[in-house]
TrEMBL record:
Domain AMP-dependent synthetase/ligase as annotated: residue spans: 134-552
Keywords annotated in UniProt: Membrane, Transmembrane, Transmembrane helix
The protein's name: AMP-dependent synthetase/ligase domain-containing protein
Residues passing through the membrane, by range: 32-52
Length: 731
């Protein structure tokens, strides 16, 4: 994420899945070979499946438990009678975990970065210039080398003059040096403040001043932004920048930053190498990170995350991902300033995995910033494990379907037939899901698709927002990997629930992790009660070792949502509404803040309706809006450009540009009709279907401040920006 011409939100994850690729593959395979394979793929499994048919026996994944605190329906992980606190006995802090992992796997490859060979700028048809990168292979640091660099950086901080009793902030895109800087700070018991690289100026100033940061660690390209706000930031004494192969640093910035000391990351490492300083290691209750949430409303809040919180989540997640270890390769590209990515990379560290860094704009062979003919990150790295937020997985699905649609009748029919067979198998027999038929359809259809993400993905960590069941099934089949649907918040260091690899159900987020309890507490006002039948419902409350210490310098807000019970267990009240299934798996069904009472007394859940309407092929993003003084709702919609333009061509609609098309009444009606269809399929009530919509041609990006880094909409910001449009929709 950052100052790119396209955003993380807009990344065409599957642009490398071309109809032409499918066509050449078809010819090389041969039409008769395909027919023969299809016959084998149907007849043999059909003849055998009668032996294996039948539903798998249900597995108990979570069990009810008696806990303290407010009355409710509580569940623990079925495999852990006591909450686990650490991945192994000695790893009580992140500093200890880091040192021990680096010793365990000292000669194994750890952090990988691609070398920049060259860059060029091309001019698009609209006159805009686009940056294209030629990236080489991954170059690796071993665990031992990373440990040495972190120790050198830690010593260098002290030599530079950083006051070890003050905080350091990291304001950078995801990269190996980010992680090394973090671990270096932990070696000197320095609390790290994390700041999104895309954070707006006001929020950046607020987070730095509120935490009295004395050392700021950043990308070289952020120096210009820092120079512009230097007069508004009170406590900074040192600025350390990451050198970039592709750009030189404008040293004039150091003069414009007043008394700030400005040094490169390698210079600080050099200081530490020459004059080592003994580590000052933290305790498990010490604050490791103050993480500023991107926030859907107002200024961001700083969540105080302890070392114990981080190692507890690591311990919990390591029990869920099957056989995670040194043979695994993890693709790191989400923002490390987001709890989801930081938790994931911490887990990979604990398990001894390789971590290769990429970016959302260089992921595939035809991503926006990849030079034609150059490998994208997935092709170069061939990861086995990756994280993905629902918005990305939705785009993967849409990208595949568009390419299949454009591949012609034979390709489309073969894909659809194979997909239906695999879907029926996954939802039916064990044999069909994992046996001969799966292997045959993989050879015939799906291996080609999987090559887009490197061809070796075996597990996807999903989180950040609700994932639709259709998309989850689609990814399971087309990418051949289970999605570990996780539920957690910054306030629980991402640790709450996690679906297990052998759970083939959709729409749920699994049982509680072994490091915490999850409890439902009745919300009478909203009509959600733990006594509801057939399943208990209520506000989701998380208690245990992953629950953080509260909000930085915000005792009032902390006391509103954090409670400590009579047994000493700390609970966080999430504001989300959930239900527990009989096997102990949680499903998120609503959010307290998203419920609006309409004029005639009906309640409408904005989040629930938005999730249903997002399944329209025309929708890239949307925000539902309900005014309590009216009896219906309206919506702001960002359309999928390719889909709407394709419809317009086929319908013979004339337009000047995409913005003009979005104003056409015919286009508005087409999208609205799609809402009626998907709404009916989702069993939405009539008042839940938007009475009017406004099509907006520009995507909502983290850079624009309209969505968070996890791509969740910022409702208040959207309402403010499009206030006039919303008023006209109700006019």
């Amino acid at each position: 994420m950052g100052d790119s011409e396209e955003s993380f939100l807009n990344t065409p994850m599957l642009d490398s899945f071309h109809a032409g690729d499918y066509s050449s593959w078809w010819k090389s395979y041969g039409e008769y070979g395909i027919v023969a394979a299809v016959v084998i793929g149907i007849l043999i499994p059909l003849s055998c499946s009668t032996i294996f048919m039948g539903k798998k026996r249900g597995k108990q994944r979570g069990v009810p438990v008696e806990v303290g605190g407010e009355a409710g329906y509580a569940v623990r992980n079925a495999r852990a009678t006591e909450l686990i606190e650490v991945p192994w006995k000695e790893a009580t802090t992140m500093a200890a975990l880091f040192e021990q992992s680096c010793k365990r796997y000292s000669q194994s490859q750890f952090l990988g970065t691609r070398k920049l060979i060259n860059r060029e700028f091309v001019t698009g048809s609209d006159g805009r210039k686009f940056e294209k990168l030629h990236l080489g292979d991954y170059e690796w640091l071993t665990y031992a080398e990373v440990f040495d660099r972190a120790c050198n950086f830690a010593s260098g901080l002290v030599q530079l003059g950083h006051n070890v009793d003050s905080r350091a902030a990291i304001f950078s895109e995801t990269r190996a040096e980010w992680f090394i800087a973090l671990q270096g700070c932990f070696r000197q018991n320095i609390t790290v403040v994390t700041v999104y690289a895309s954070l707006g100026e006001d929020a950046l100033i607020h987070s730095l001043n509120e935490t009295s940061v004395s050392t700021l660690i950043c990308d070289a390209k952020q120096l210009k932004k820092l120079a512009a706000i230097s007069s508004k930031v009170n406590s900074i004494e040192n600025v350390i920048y990451f050198e970039d192969d592709e750009s030189s640093v404008d040293t004039s910035f150091s003069g414009s930053m007043g008394s700030w000391k400005v040094a490169s990351f390698s210079e600080v490492e050099g200081l530490g190498m020459k004059s080592p300083v003994q580590p000052s290691l933290p305790s498990k209750n010490g604050i490791a990170v103050v993480m500023y949430t991107s926030g859907s409303t107002g200024l961001p809040k700083g969540v105080m995350i302890t070392h114990g919180n981080i190692v507890a989540t690591c311990a919990g997640v390591m029990t869920v991902i099957p056989s995670l270890g040194a043979q695994d390769v993890y693709l790191a590209y989400l923002p490390l300033a987001h709890v989801f990515e930081l938790a994931a990379e911490s887990v990979m560290l604990a398990a001894g995995c390789k971590v290769g860094y990429g970016s959302a704009l260089t992921l595939t062979d035809t991503s926006n910033k990849i030079k034609k003919g150059t490998k994208g990150d997935t092709s170069a790295l061939k990861p086995t494990v990756m994280t993905a937020v629902p918005a990305i997985l939705d785009r993967v699905r849409d990208g595949v379907l568009r390419k299949v649609e454009g591949g012609g009748g034979l390709v489309k029919n073969l894909f659809n037939f194979g997909y239906k067979r695999r879907l029926a198998a996954v939802e039916g027999s064990w044999f069909g899901a994992w046996g001969l038929e799966k292997m045959l359809w993989d050879v015939i259809v799906f291996n080609k698709i999987r090559s887009v993400l490197g061809g070796h993905i075996r597990f996807i960590l999903g989180g950040g927002a609700p994932l639709s069941g259709d998309t989850q099934r689609f990814i399971n089949i087309c990418m051949g990997a289970p999605i570990g649907q996780a539920y957690g918040l910054t306030e629980t260091f991402a640790g709450a629930t996690f679906s297990e690899a052998d759970d083939t159900t959709v729409g749920r987020v699994g049982p509680p992790l072994p490091c915490c309890y999850v409890k439902l507490v009745s919300w009478e006002e909203g009509g959600y009660k733990t006594s509801d039948k057939p399943l208990p419902r209520g506000e989701i409350v998380i208690g245990g070792h992953s629950v953080t210490a509260g909000y930085f310098k915000n005792e009032q807000k902390t006391n509103e949502v954090y409670k400590v019970d009579e047994r000493g267990i700390r609970w966080f009240y999430s504001g989300d509404i959930g239900t527990f299934h009989p096997d102990g798996c949680l499903e998120i069904i609503d959010r307290k803040k998203d419920i609006v009472k309409l004029q005639h007394g009906e309640y409408i859940s904005l989040g629930k309706v938005e999730a249903a309407l997002l399944s329209s092929n025309y929708v890239d993003n949307l925000m539902l809006y309900a005014d309590p003084f009216h009896n219906n709702c309206v919506a702001l919609v960002v359309p999928v450009r390719q889909a709407l333009e394709k419809w317009a061509r086929e319908a013979g609609i004339r337009y000047n540009d995409f913005a003009d098309l979005c104003e056409k009444s015919e286009a508005v009606n087409e999208v609205q009709q799609s809402f009626s269809k998907v709404g009916k399929d989702a069993k939405l009530d009539k008042f839940e279907i938007p009475a009017k919509i406004k099509l907006l041609p520009e995507p909502w990006t983290p850079e624009s401040g309209l969505v968070t880094a996890a791509l969740k909409i910022k409702r208040e910001q959207l309402k403010t920006k499009f206030k006039n449009d919303l008023q006209k929709l109700y006019g």
